[in-house]
Write a structure and sequence with these properties.
Length: 324
């Protein structure tokens, strides 16, 4: 008797999903300061002006401590003092100047970091070192900094000294830092399911690989290495791969956004989230949805001066920006 049988509907559905190409990724492009973390506004008085009932002088004191903590970690673990004149947009740009030398026994204290460069010209492509790429000795340091960040060594070094500071800031900011962690985690967990449901009928239980991938990317106006230190100190480094942190300090956010657009497949969907006019204008230039974050008090879910505090921003609002 023949062993062939009729394929069940569930088996056919699973086979169809297994054969289908993965859906395009969703890239969430985050500003850092005054979006995911409270930092500059603590030092310049903006937070106290937006929240006059917060402790007088407390915000500025915390801001000063954060600034010192970020620079100390960047200098002690990421070579920032040596690399400040060799700034790059991303770790990819630094890697383009790296000749791959084995660094197991490399003497970082004994070499001479190359000539001082100015990087005011056009940003080089990620696979082209260009005239503003760092010398190999600087590229070695960026590679080592990337390794330390990826292995969580920055977080390990930062936690003992920053624990009190983190909790004090989270309390002052009504849970802003806690909300940032929760929102980033929720986007990774819930957005793929929401997007998958919007794309068609419910997926077979074994076909979660065919849900859209959600990727967090940070574009900041600060230098790259202090930004990596900041993500570690604010306990957000687990959400952002080192190569997915970009500095717009020299070339601007539009150039960074355009670089991201070229890095991901043409069908990728982008949403930019931030508090500044520059990222809002850059998103508009590329036709990306933009969600504005505000320090202002929230009234019926929206901030008084436009935008929404991070503590009120939800996965559903981000999904809505994607047209779901």
């Amino acid at each position: 008797m023949g062993g062939g049988g009729t394929e069940s509907p569930d088996s056919k559905k699973a086979r169809t999903h297994a054969q289908a190409p993965p859906p395009p990724p969703v890239v969430l492009v985050w500003d850092i300061d005054e979006t995911l973390v409270i930092f500059n506004s603590l030092q310049n008085g903006e937070w106290e002006r937006a929240h006059p009932d917060s402790g007088a002088g407390e915000a500025q004191a915390l801001g000063s401590q954060w600034s010192s903590a970020v620079l100390d970690l960047a200098d002690s673990h990421l070579f920032y003092k040596q690399l400040e004149t060799h700034g790059v947009m991303s770790l990819e740009n630094a890697a383009a100047a790296d000749d791959g030398r084995d660094l197991a026994s490399y003497d970082f204290d004994g070499d001479v970091v190359g000539r001082i460069q100015s990087c005011e010209g056009p940003a080089p492509a990620s696979d082209d070192p260009g005239p503003c790429s760092p010398p190999p000795e600087a590229a070695y340091r960026y590679r080592e900094a990337h390794l330390r960040y990826s292995l969580g060594l920055l977080a390990d070094a930062a936690l003992p000294s920053s624990d009190r500071l983190w909790h004090a800031t989270d309390t002052l900011a009504a849970g802003w830092l806690t909300a940032a962690q929760g929102l980033l985690a929720a986007c990774l967990a819930r957005l793929p399911v929401l997007l998958g449901a919007a794309l068609g009928p419910p997926l077979h239980a074994g076909a979660r690989d065919h849900l859209p991938q959600v990727r967090h990317v940070a574009v900041t106006s600060s230098d790259l290495l202090p930004s990596l230190a900041k993500l570690a100190l604010f306990r957000l480094d687990r959400f952002f791969a080192g190569r997915d942190v970009l500095s717009s300090r020299v070339h601007g956010k539009l150039e960074c956004f355009a670089r991201l657009r070229d890095r991901f497949p043409g069908s990728a969907a982008f949403v930019a989230i931030g508090d500044g006019r520059e990222e809002e204008a850059a998103a508009a230039a590329l036709g990306w949805p933009f969600i504005k974050v505000s320090l202002g008090r929230c009234t019926l879910g929206r901030a008084e001066k436009g935008g929404v505090p991070l503590t009120s921003l939800t996965v559903m609002e981000i999904a809505g920006a994607l047209g779901i």
